[in-house]
Amino acid sequence: MRFINSSYEGLKDHQATQLLFLFSLCLLSSINIIEATVQHLKWEIKYEYRSPDCFKKLSITVNGLSPGPTITATQGDTLIIQVTNSLITENTAIHWHGIRQRGTPWSDGTQGITQCPILPGETFTYQFVVDRAGTYMYHAHYEMQRSAGLHGLIRVLVPEGTVEPFSYDEERSIIVNDWWHKSAIEQSTGLLSLNFSWVGEPQSLLINGRGRYNCSLAGTTDVCDMTNTECLPFVLTMVPGKTYRLRIASLASLSALNLEIEGHDMTIVEADGHYVDPVIVKNLNIYSGETYSIIVKADQDPLRNYWIGLNVISRKPGTPTGTSILNYHPNNPLKVPPTLPPTGPLWNDTLYRFNQSKLIKSHPDHIEPPPPTSNRVIILLNTQNKVNGYIRWSINNVSLNLPTTPYLIAIKENLRHVFSKKPALETYKYKTYDIHSVLKNPNTTLGNSIHRLKFNSTVDLILQNANALSPNISETHPWHLHGHDFWVLGYGLGKFDPQINPKNYNLVDPIQKNTVPLHPYGWTALRFQADNPGVWSFHCHLEAHFFIGMGVVLEEGVERLGKLPKSIMGCGQSKSLVRT
Ligand code: C2O
Ligand code: CU
């Protein structure tokens, strides 16, 4: 640039200042241009044979990969993702889990709620801004496709120059999930049958898409091959003496999981995109839909390798430990550690999990305090029920059944008749309901009504767990809220008391999250601000539970939205909208 070379001599002082000012404006705006980039991604979604645990199965891939490609962006970036559905006989939709979609509720990817399904052969474009740094994920939000492998990680980095409240030399990512040999369609068909067939415990646990099934159990040998390189364990390499940030995301369909790195403590520093007041744990409980960053130091004996063990918790395990190898590189050849992999905590130690949940608080320098009071309290009782003999999950005795016209379109385009206008029941008889016993009359109804929230109001969501259909069973349900983060005000065991328990809410330094566990026979209290115009699902993140009704739908401020993109329409009553 010429003017840099030009001499300032002869310029009056104020002229020089002006010039400098202009110059720095130029610099600033060029920084902005560098920071707020637009990323265009083209994805093809397809069925392909894969053997992630040595057993050959039809998996759903993104550009040939399952897990799909990791998205890496910087806070403020716009992502434009063109998704082509090449599944041939199945629809699809992709949800960007943890991204709040402020101003773009139609890009949330929830079929039946924010969009019509993407038909085979069609291309649908998602466009949204990643407005907060952190670790997130994406996955199919159509039927049970998530469990067929359509999922991956989203890393949103802090803008250059921003300091995070922890330091590390390098980072690595870990996706954990559970894996079945039955197809997602076989699973969902079983769940919808009168002759109910439960998905059962997974055949294996995967770490970054790699697990190991004992092929001698498979019967025929042509579908299972333990020499297949696709099922070699994932290897985490660390250089002795260095410090690592591990981003961990659980895309499990069913299992609550525990991750342990033999001989290494973990310091939890981030949860669902929020900084955590650092806590040191021996192993990490991670529920489906949650993400964490942990700091791990490569400070153990550098002359050997270590196991990373992944175990099922909270359900009686019927699946062997998933394993990876931590390789101290370059000291050691890649070989199996001389020990046995960690087996994790006792699967039924509810108190252990409950206490770890309570450890997660906001980092003191990053507290965004919750509003001290709320405008509305919605208590949500979680029960397992039956509808005409079909097994369902219900919330306040209603089992969610999505309408064929997505809510967002129906509300905005005045097609309200496509779903029930009767307000969703807000409360159950918490005074008399016995959460510890099996329902005498398990009958429930299917429903598709929604909770309409006053725009900008503060809402408390209280999740109440109860006994399932079998005696002495209450499951762990990880609940996920679309479009918002909530403050986790408290966890309790037993029945929530609306008079007493709120007195002990943490209003000082609660963590903000988008997914939170509801522990067996317990309650979890959340608070959020209904400030994001759109229609948002709040549901159990276990694939098989949401699929048979375990969720509710919230709406706020849809009237504030501009025109909806036509691309989300075309199904149910919205057919005519596309044609006109
Ligand atoms: Cu990650 Cu509606 O879910
Ligand atoms: Cu559940």
UniProtKB/TrEMBL annotation:
It holds the Pfam family Cu-oxidase. GO terms for cellular component: extracellular region. GO terms for molecular function: copper ion binding; L-ascorbate oxidase activity. InterPro entries: Cu-oxidase-like_N, Cu-oxidase_2nd, Cu-oxidase_C, Cu-oxidase_fam, Cu_oxidase_CS, Cu_oxidase_Cu_BS, Cupredoxin, CuRO_3_AAO. Keywords: Copper, Disulfide bond, Metal-binding, Oxidoreductase, Repeat, Secreted. It catalyses: 4 L-ascorbate + O2 = 4 monodehydro-L-ascorbate radical + 2 H2O. Dimer. The keyword DNA-binding does not apply. It comes from the Eukaryota. NCBIfam families: ascorbase. It is an enzyme of class 1 (oxidoreductase). This is L-ascorbate oxidase. It is found in: Secreted. Its cofactor is Cu cation. Residues 45-157, 172-330, 423-557 form the Plastocyanin-like domain. Its EC number is 1.10.3.3. Belongs to the multicopper oxidase family.
